[in-house]
Design brief:
Two copies of one chain form a homodimer.
Chain A lengths: L13 E7 L6 H17 L4 E6 L10 H6 L5 E4 L23 H10 L2 H9 L4 E8 L6 E3 L13 E3 L2 H9 L3 E3 L3 H10 L4 E2 L4 H7 L7 E4 L8 E7 H6 L2 H35 L3 E4 L2 H21 L1 H40 L1
Parallel strand pairs in A: 1-2, 1-3, 6-7, 6-8, 9-11
Antiparallel strand pairs in A: 3-10, 4-10, 5-8, 5-9
Helix pairs in contact in A: 1-9, 5-10, 10-11
Chain lengths: 347, 347
């Protein structure tokens, strides 16, 4: 046997670039990318450094997948459902209508078949994907007029995209693709009747409460929304094994902080929105039922024409249908009891 | 300026011992400690290794706090509420009656004041604590006879401990401290009328369904139960900074896997229990209301006599009371709708 040379235990010097779909105006999202870079640098004793660029600085916000595929940048932060146009199966890496909640999504990815299936899906694009946070259940958006019944959705112009847009169009909505910077003026002018974005923390920053009064819940198209880290497969494979481990650890840690950030701060943001005149409303039951039915019709159509979609769909939905009933028992009954008990105690 | 010597970037060789309250018979719990050790070793390029010992091998299961305090071992895995007898404030690091659910607990620890307050609490014991997983909402336990009303709890001998035991004793229950190995025979012989342990995955392994038919939910004394990593403060401070970062990252990752493991597998375990004759039941409303009232009385008594408890209690409960109402809106309404829609679709 030959003794390993001393430098085998050294941390090699590596510098990467990272581009994001987000920017500093969305602190929980962009902050997770910052946390990821910080932890990689700290845990490698300063030897592995990643320079982070917000959307548009070196790569457009929705160009993250291509930029990482092509090794324009070594890695990126984005949400896979933005690439619905390339392949709708990417939505399972983020959110699909009436899909998994945050904990169920993590369970499917890490202890079910989720990560394995997503790695297979991303492999031909030369991307190794890692979960890096979740927004939690999103809100159903801002509306200039109340939605009292399904009929009130007919002809409504709404800023939304991807899979959700397809379902909503079956329900009579006219979906519009509008970049974040144009949302506020379009809603103010009435070019848009409604906008869905994220939840209280991020929506408050856009100022939507000033131009639309009604804030609906839940966002049934995003029962949770997972954010992803993409790493180019060629550069990933060249990394020392212990730097590969660091990427798993730091992306998971950064993602945990993202969800904790939303969970800790959404409540305060919602209280401020309500104090500023926002009317909080639940979607009427007929809207929810029509959305559930339309989603199931659309799923069937996609499965019939796309075997790759069908393979992931069946795995994901079997996990959902097996897991959701358990969540209603201990978790659901506990949350419901405590919510009501605290509300009654306040009276 | 002087150039840093080459070995400044090397990973020094370090070997630690870790003791656990758990053992291989509890795979999600003990598995998290195994995952932690594995990731520390991998991400340090094999240079930082931690040898894990199950409960009883070098330290008794409930001796983890003392063993880490005294540096008998460098680190340990346990749940802080086992040390209720030393200081009831430790319960806030794990679970308290009608406390935070899993995501709320992580949010309080990481984005609220939780970790800071817990670090202050542990400092005089020479321990640096890290969150390392959560079981989710636990079940309310196994009962030989049905609990149809609060009166059915009077005189019931039940295996439970700590804070929950105090609340239950105010409700007429006779709490018993019994080691895990004696639970099954005591319940079989009728020395015990009831047992609370964890949830379907762990309870199934103990075989409790063979000797008690009624399985109640929710475990209102454990709306979530956080597991902790303890590290001796002296050895922690002597670690290179990048190894300290690795401990934060690896404990968070291992904890994420623990919760995902429970979330992915509890549903299957519950289906098997029901197939084996278990009757699943919700606690009656008068039991829940009496438990909520008794918990609040006990909290007030503890706050009145213990300023340290009061300080943490007030911070924790302000976080709960601010956050729970938000969780009922998007998350709660989504989970409730989907649970009911899937149940109806099955019919």
């Amino acid at each position: 046997a030959v003794a390993a040379p001393v430098f085998a235990q050294a941390n090699p010097k590596i510098s990467w670039k990272m581009t994001s779909t987000y920017g500093p105006s969305l602190p929980p999202l962009f902050g997770a990318a910052q946390t990821f870079c910080k932890m990689i640098e700290e845990a490698s004793d300063g030897q592995f450094s990643i320079r982070l660029y917000p959307a548009g600085e070196i790569v457009p916000g929705y160009g993250v997948m291509d930029a990482v595929s092509n090794n324009t940048v070594e890695c990126g932060q984005t949400a896979s459902y933005y690439y619905y146009g390339k392949d709708p199966t990417f939505c399972f890496d983020t959110a699909v209508p009436f899909g998994l909640n945050t904990r169920q999504m993590t369970a499917w990815m890490e202890q079910g078949d989720g990560l394995k299936l997503m790695r297979e899906l991303f492999a031909p694009r030369h991307i190794v994907n890692f979960p890096m946070g979740n927004t939690g259940t999103q809100m159903g958006g801002w509306y200039r007029k109340p939605i009292n019944t399904l009929a009130d959705l007919k002809g409504l112009t709404m800023r939304t995209a991807g899979f959700a847009g397809e379902v909503l169009s079956r329900m009579g909505v006219v979906p519009q693709q509008i970049p974040p910077g144009d949302i506020y003026p379009s809603l103010e002018k009435g070019t848009l009747d409604a906008v869905e974005f994220v939840g209280p923390v991020d929506d408050e920053k856009l100022g939507l409460f000033k131009v639309a009064k009604y804030y609906y819940y839940p966002g049934w198209w995003e029962g949770s929304a997972q954010v992803s880290l993409y790493v180019n497969d060629g550069v990933y494979e060249k990394l020392p094994k212990h730097y590969q481990s660091l990427i798993s650890l730091a992306s998971s840690y950064a993602g945990m902080q993202m969800t904790a950030n939303y969970d800790a701060h959404n409540s305060e943001a919602l209280r401020r929105l309500i104090a500023n005149g926002t009317t909080l409303k639940a979607f009427p039951r007929d809207v929810m039922d029509a959305a559930f039915a339309a989603s199931n019709v659309l799923y069937k159509e996609f499965c019939d024409k796309d075997a790759g979609f069908k393979k992931v769909f069946e795995n994901y939905m079997a996990f959902r249908d097996g897991t959701v009933p358990w969540f209603r028992i201990a978790e659901g009954s506990y949350d419901n009891y405590l919510g009501i008990a605290l509300a009654n105690a306040k009276k």
